[in-house]
């Protein structure tokens, strides 16, 4: 297998910060806090300042005669930046900003140097100041947040055909019309564009002209004014990265007759982006190899104002998605824009890709990188003596990161050495050893640049390094002074064997500029960041999908030879952006989450890890590899609202992230069983019947779907319940797929949702699902949060007086006993008081305990279940927690479990008070509790 990987230094730097900025320093008003160890340095930095008035995307009205401008989700309305109402409100916001700037300048005693202004996603500016000044202005009225600018990094012919774009190009999609993306606008937030390149010319075959141009704009976001990026130069000056990504997503069809020519080797004569007739808007947010958040935010606001349909973001970040740049991407999704973002690549500072995935916002399409089935690159062949073996011919090579094009040669001697790895510690090479020759060296022990430097010192003209194991070499040769290339282990071993056979007779070789070679497709790039997502996002699957990102040939700057090969998730991201553009061209009314789900549910599942033999898993690639032969034909999709995405914030949100309507289900603490609900929307013109099944072989985990068969009306919806049961403790997630198969295959391809389940098969007195807490075991308290709230958040019942808590234990189970058997203590706050506990029983219905709390605190304070969380005892039968708008909190047990055990075995046999503040239920009749627990087998 050969996976040629060339990743420039700028393409592999994917850490979240530069120069030690490991986290954002943020200040906010009124709850302003400054860490004691933050020095008030005199050096100026850019700070992002947010003001109280909302941006146009979120303004619901209420200010004078200015009408609301926020899109109405219920009607499917898309934000219209060009409307008169939006223009009027933005003018108001800009006036308010001038007043804020004047107040800040007064507080600082100097004029404020403003570099950017924002009025769509929020009202704010970016300005230069010291840390001490930032602390001071956080107290200025109208200022709600001040944080230092973060620096992000760039992540860095055959691809469109490999993912099936020709299916849509040629009209083999619903409606049957040809479509290459015309009418769709792709926004590229990157390092700038090469506006004179033929990839962005006005291709008449797509209907482009001077009046309707392909390249609609090339903005420099080094500064902004009035929501428009107005920096001095939108061209790609320091890096061709943005040219490469833009042409991959939506570059024109370019033939070898173009000027400059791509010089494609036979049999290929042309290349293009995935959506070659889409228009392009370029936003230069990376002036070099770093990308300031101030510029990124400016680009996001400008792109929303321009009304783009799809955005590609091949830049790092998104590891704190509710508070970093990914949060602004949610604003983009709310404005009707699909966002594809790179999962990230390994680097010298992050060498292990596991658990490092970037762009964790569930609204973003996060893209891993894998191989296509053919690679283009320089070809190395042995030429003598005699007739060299076939396995030494047309060996596909990959450029080292320090060069952008090969230096071809003919019949140069090629030599190996007894120091096969060429490291300094093992002796390097004798002086003059490689004079007049090229060197063949094996990977291992020391870094690539050291090997190349040693060969150059010994007179080598060029260097070829072959792998010492399976797979590709992600070869960073920055600093090398002569051309260097990598080849696979098999190729290098065969060539070394031929050289050894020839003995003292020189072996010669030639390097051609480019060949096309067959490689193993759908193999994960070894550099590609992957899951699992850590911490509070453990129950979210990322990345979402994979696409070609290894040895991608696309446009560049003149300094790059106008075309060049590049590898990285930066290259896979624009494949998916282009794919989304094609799907949106076919289905212009589909929302961004619906497009995202269609791409995920139709992705190709089968593929391999970087060794080419071990099957990849869901944490590697999410739903699989993008497949445009099926995506636009998806009969069912999943939608989700902006409000729910906001509410799923693990820090204070009101719903659990597992409740989001995503094309994946995941629970890393599924103890006993856990359930998910997904709502499917039909995009078909007629009713359709579907069968749901589970594909997965992990022992100890089963997954069931209800209903197993269902019929959806044309345009209708269907809710399905997915129940995972764990009978054996899982050390690693059990991966599988919920497969939805249509009865009529002509209506839709089969679809799938991913499933990742990990948990314990035997659980004792532990709440199972939907909580943030810990504890368990007989007699052990479990401190939990209600409805997704953390232990530091309030849960307001919504009632100004009394509140009722319903504990639902499942139909057909009587909860017998008297109030003496269960006691309720309100430990804090003081305005909760203990009241009577009563029982409700119905032979046909659910049984419940009603806990009534009265408010004794200050008038106007809403009844509060707890400021520290809810403390309860229960067993493994608990399924879910639901808080309704009526102020009722319902904790539900699954009926099958409740029916199987003693109905009295509902509480722990602990009598000791617990220090956790909040509501506390425990047994006071110890004998009765002991008997109940014993009867239940716990």
Question: How would you explain this protein's 3D organization?
Answer:
- This protein has 938 residues and is an alpha+beta fold.
- The chain is built from 16 helices and 48 strands.
- An 8-stranded mixed beta sheet has the order 19-18-25-21-22-23-24-20, with helices on both faces.
- Helix 6 runs parallel beside helix 11.
- The N terminus and C terminus are likely disordered.
Q: So what's the overall shape?
A: globular
Q: Count of DSSP helices?
A: 16
Determine the fraction of residues in helical runs and give it as a percent range: 10-25%
Largest sheet geometry: 8 strands, mixed
Structural class: alpha+beta
Rg, rounded, reads 31 Å
What is the first-to-last residue Cα distance?
55 Å
Please mark out the parts with pLDDT under 50 across 5 or more consecutive residues, or reply none.
1-41, 762-938
Strand content: 25-35%
Q: How many β-strands, per DSSP?
A: 48
User: Order of strands in the sheet with the most strands?
Assistant: 19-18-25-21-22-23-24-20
Mean pLDDT score, rounded? Answer: 79
């Amino acid at each position: 297998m050969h996976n040629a990987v060339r990743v420039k230094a700028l393409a592999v730097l994917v850490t979240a910060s530069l120069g030690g900025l490991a986290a954002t320093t943020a200040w906010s008003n009124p709850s302003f806090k400054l860490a004691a160890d933050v020095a008030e340095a005199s050096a100026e930095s850019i700070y992002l300042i947010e003001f109280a008035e909302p941006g146009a995307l979120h303004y619901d009205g209420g200010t004078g005669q200015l009408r609301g401008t926020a899109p109405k989700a219920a009607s499917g309305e898309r934000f219209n930046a060009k409307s008169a109402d939006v223009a009027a409100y933005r003018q108001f916001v800009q006036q308010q900003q001038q007043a804020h700037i004047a107040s800040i300048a007064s507080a600082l005693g100097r004029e404020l140097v403003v570099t950017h202004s924002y009025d769509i996603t929020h009202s704010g500016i970016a300005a230069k100041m010291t840390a001490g000044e930032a602390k001071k202005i956080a107290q200025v009225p109208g200022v709600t947040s001040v944080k230092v600018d973060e620096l992000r990094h760039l992540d860095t012919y055959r691809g469109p055909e490999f993912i099936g774009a020709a299916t849509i190009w040629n009209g083999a999609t619903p409606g049957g019309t040809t479509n290459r993306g015309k009418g769709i606008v792709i926004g590229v937030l990157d390092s700038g564009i090469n506006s004179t390149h033929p990839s962005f010319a006005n291709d008449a075959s797509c209907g482009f002209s001077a009046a309707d141009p392909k390249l609609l704009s090339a903005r420099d976001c080094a500064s902004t004014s009035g929501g428009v990026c107005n920096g001095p130069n939108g061209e790609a000056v320091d890096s061709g990265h943005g040219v490469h990504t833009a042409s991959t997503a939506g570059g024109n069809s370019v033939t070898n007759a173009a000027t400059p020519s791509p010089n494609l080797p036979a049999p290929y004569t042309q290349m293009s982006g995935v959506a070659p007739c889409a228009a392009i808007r370029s936003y230069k947010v990376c002036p070099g190899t770093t990308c300031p958040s101030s510029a990124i935010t400016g680009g996001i606001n400008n792109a929303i104002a321009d009304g783009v349909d799809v955005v590609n973001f091949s830049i790092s970040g998104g590891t704190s998605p509710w508070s970093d740049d990914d949060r602004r991407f949610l604003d983009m999704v709310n404005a009707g824009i699909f966002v594809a973002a790179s999962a990230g690549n390994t680097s010298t500072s992050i060498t292990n890709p596991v658990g490092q995935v970037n762009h964790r916002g569930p609204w973003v399409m996060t893209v891993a990188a894998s191989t296509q089935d053919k690679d283009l690159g320089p070809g190395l062949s042995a030429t003598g003596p005699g007739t060299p073996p076939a396995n030494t011919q047309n060996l596909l090579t990959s450029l080292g990161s320090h060069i952008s094009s090969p230096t071809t040669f003919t019949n140069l001697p090629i030599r190996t050495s007894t120091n096969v790895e060429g490291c300094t510690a093992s002796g390097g090479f004798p002086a003059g050893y490689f004079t007049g020759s090229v060197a063949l060296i094996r990977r291992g022990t020391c870094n690539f640049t050291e090997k190349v430097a040693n060969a150059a010192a010994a007179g080598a003209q060029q260097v070829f390094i072959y792998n010492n194991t399976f797979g590709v070499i992600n070869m960073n040769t920055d600093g090398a002074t002569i051309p260097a290339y990598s080849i696979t282990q098999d190729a290098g071993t065969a060539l070394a064997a031929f050289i050894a056979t020839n003995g003292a007779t020189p072996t010669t070789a030639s390097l051609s500029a480019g060949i096309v070679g067959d490689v193993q497709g759908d193999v994960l790039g070894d550099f590609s960041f992957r899951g699992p997502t850590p911490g509070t996002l453990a129950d979210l699957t990322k990345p979402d999908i994979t696409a070609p990102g290894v040895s991608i040939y696309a446009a560049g700057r003149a300094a790059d030879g106008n075309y060049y090969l590049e590898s990285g998730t930066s290259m896979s991201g624009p494949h998916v952006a282009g794919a989304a553009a094609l799907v949106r061209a076919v289905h212009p009314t589909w929302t961004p989450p619906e497009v995202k789900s269609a791409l995920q549910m139709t992705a190709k599942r089968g593929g391999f890890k970087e060794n080419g033999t071990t099957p990849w898993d869901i944490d590697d690639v999410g739903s699989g590899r993008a497949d445009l032969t099926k995506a636009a034909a998806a009969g069912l999709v999943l939608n989700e609202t902006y409000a729910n995405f906001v509410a799923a914030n693990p820090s204070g949100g009101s719903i659990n992230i597992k409740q989001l309507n995503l094309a994946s289900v995941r629970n890393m603490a599924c103890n006993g069983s856990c359930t998910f609900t997904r709502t499917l929307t039909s995009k078909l013109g007629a009713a359709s019947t579907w069968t749901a099944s589970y594909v997965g072989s992990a022992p100890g985990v089963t997954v069931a779907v209800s209903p197993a068969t269902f019929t959806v009306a044309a345009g209708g919806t269907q809710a399905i319940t997915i129940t995972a049961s764990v009978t054996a403790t899982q050390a690693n997630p059990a991966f599988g797929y919920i497969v939805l198969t249509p009865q009529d295959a002509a209506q839709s391809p089969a679809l799938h949702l991913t499933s990742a389940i990990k948990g314990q098969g035997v659980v004792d007195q532990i709440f199972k699902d939907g909580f943030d807490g810990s504890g368990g075991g007989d007699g052990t308290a479990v401190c939990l949060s209600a409805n997704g709230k953390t232990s530091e958040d309030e849960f307001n019942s919504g009632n100004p007086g009394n509140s009722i808590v319903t504990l639902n234990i499942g139909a057909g189970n009587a909860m017998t006993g008297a109030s003496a058997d269960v006691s309720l203590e309100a430990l804090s706050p003081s305005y909760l008081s203990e009241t009577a506990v009563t029982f409700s029983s119905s032979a046909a219905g659910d049984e419940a305990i009603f806990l009534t709390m009265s408010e004794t605190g200050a008038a106007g304070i809403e009844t509060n279940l707890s400021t520290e969380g809810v403390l309860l005892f229960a067993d493994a039968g608990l399924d879910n927690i639901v808080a309704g708008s009526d102020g009722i909190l319902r904790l539900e047990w699954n009926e099958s479990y409740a029916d199987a055990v003693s109905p009295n075995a509902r509480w722990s046999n602990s009598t000791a008070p617990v220090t956790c503040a909040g509501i506390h239920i425990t047994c006071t009749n110890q004998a009765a509790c002991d008997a109940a627990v014993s009867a239940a087998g716990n």
